[in-house]
Design brief:
2% strand, 68% helix, single chain, 506 residues, 26 helices, two-stranded antiparallel ribbon
């Protein structure tokens, strides 16, 4: 039957009897139970992925029971271990197929949460399944609107696994941890865990994971960068609540920056500047005080502006723009002397990068418009789809982005989330893809933020910023005026669109 299903055109014949087909496979799994049966079920799920949703809960329930049965056969049964792994792989495939129905995830938690907790616990006895458990946990913590108390039990278990027997799985652990932080920051900040050393807060567990990863010689640079992204998640999601952690964060990141100064490849330095940019956006006064306290302000900003020329991804560019622009929210009298003298250079860097981001977004939008002009079914074209506005790269299309990553599973796509989900080698020092990182800052419009902050600074201290403007190159001033005009036009267009939506339909 498995080979029959794989025959071209078989889905047309078998789709009407899919419920009976699944029922029969459930019976076979119960009576026979081997890896070939599970592999055949995987073929069915792959073949009929678009039609699995009505059967998703039953599939996950059956596969969870089968996993437990295979695990209970003993450690020496290789066939059972392989079948157990295939059960988890099937579960992940089902979860991938129902991303648009987060309510279904909740109904599956009674089966899946104990399974995940079992694998994360037990001192690594189920380490061969850890990759799949983290895969499942990523689905369960991202797509539902809320994270259940039962799922939160996995949070401290991730730390224990990392600390005691799964250090090399750090890159697989970061996505669900970031989901926990972003989805419920207050619960994250309030959470505690009992350890042999006493009660430890969840945020301290995360800081420990980052510190250990960055300090460990066996950590790859990619793993260090992935760990540092946890700092960004905390800064972006926990606004105003983690002031006390800025010193520790700077201790770790600036020490790492000092080790990376002479590296030709700037990827880790750029990851560090993403954290510093996030910290400046979080609280520019506190972050500048941390840099001043260590006497590194001038060196950090000089290296940052230099490395900004090599930033090609939207995330480091955006965080550079937001971080440097946030400094201008402070009165000139509160700026360190080294920053006061460099304000024209910082504004030049911000204006240049904002212009590049705007131009590339427009170019990408035009390319998408050209592609849609060749659609075979023009009636499906959305008249409201006018390409990318300036801020398209920061629009909160998070669910769609996650699904794009998940959709690359079958063909080994290059997205970082996809690499995580298919368990590829994380030790390769590839050029990081930031498309899987989502946070509240996705909602911040870069152009409007630069526009509003610069205009507010000029209005607040006109004499100071007249001198700053006089020190700017003429091309920077011209570009700045163009960005102001673009921001005003964008805001007018947004207001017009809102008014049109509010008007009652005829």
């Amino acid at each position: 039957l498995r080979f029959l299903i794989e025959v071209e055109g078989a889905e047309t014949t078998l789709l009407p009897v899919l419920p009976q087909l699944l029922t029969e496979y459930f019976r076979i799994m119960t009576e026979i139970g081997n890896d070939e049966v599970v592999a055949a079920l995987q073929v069915i799920i792959d073949k009929f992925g678009d039609h699995i949703e009505p059967h998703a809960v039953a599939l996950v329930t059956q596969l969870s029971v089968a996993f437990e049965n295979y695990c209970s056969t003993g450690e020496d049964d290789d066939d059972a271990a392989m079948a157990a792994a295939q059960c988890l792989e099937c579960i992940a495939t089902v979860l991938k197929g129902i991303c648009e129905r987060p309510d279904l995830y909740k109904s599956m938690e009674p089966q899946l949460v104990p399974l995940v907790l079992q694998i994360l616990g037990n001192d690594g006895a189920f380490i061969e399944y850890l990759e799949y458990a983290l895969d499942i946990l990523t689905f369960l913590t991202y797509f539902p609107d809320e994270i259940s108390p039962q799922l939160w039990e996995a949070f401290p278990l991730i730390y224990v696994a990392f600390d005691q027997w799964a250090f090399d799985y750090l890159n697989l652990m970061v996505p669900p941890l970031e989901n926990f932080i972003a989805k419920s920051p207050q619960q994250f900040l309030a959470g505690t865990s009992q350890t042999p050393e006493g009660t430890v807060s969840y945020i301290d567990l995360v800081f420990s994971m980052v510190a250990k990863t960055v300090a460990e010689d066996r950590s790859s640079e990619n793993e260090c960068r992935k760990a540092l992204s946890l700092y960004m998640s905390i800064l972006h999601s926990c606004g105003g609540s983690v002031d006390a952690y800025l010193p520790m964060m700077n201790d770790i990141t600036l020490a790492k920056l000092g080790q990376q100064v002479n590296n030709e490849v700037p990827l880790t330095r750029i990851a560090i500047f993403q954290v510093i940019g996030s910290a400046l956006y979080y609280n520019p006064q506190l972050e500048l005080a941390e840099l001043e306290k260590r006497g590194v302000t001038q060196q950090v900003f000089a290296q940052w502006v230099q490395d900004a020329e090599q930033m090609e991804k939207w995330l480091p560019r955006k965080l550079t723009v937001l971080g440097l622009t946030s400094i201008l929210m402070l009165p000139a009298s509160q700026l360190p002397a080294s920053i006061s003298a460099s304000v024209p250079q910082l504004i030049s860097a911000v204006v240049s990068m904002t212009e590049k981001m705007k131009e590339e977004a427009e170019k990408e939008g035009n390319e998408e418009d050209d592609e849609e002009d060749f659609e075979e079914e023009p009636e499906e074209y959305d008249d409201d789809e006018e390409g990318f506005d300036e801020d398209e790269d920061v629009t909160n299309e998070t669910d769609e982005m996650y699904m794009d990553a998940l959709n690359q599973l079958s063909n080994g796509g290059g997205d970082a989330v996809a690499r995580f989900l298919i368990g590829e080698d994380w030790d390769t020092d590839y050029d990081d893809d930031d498309d899987d990182f989502v946070s509240p800052l996705d909602e911040v419009d870069t152009l409007l933020y630069v526009n509003d902050t610069l205009k507010a600074a000029f209005q607040r201290e006109p004499e100071v910023y007249q001198r700053v403007q006089a020190a700017l190159p003429p091309e920077t001033v011209n570009t700045c005026q163009k960005l102001f005009a673009a921001a005003d036009a964008q805001r007018r267009a947004q207001e017009a669109a809102q008014q049109q939506q509010q008007q009652p339909s005829a």
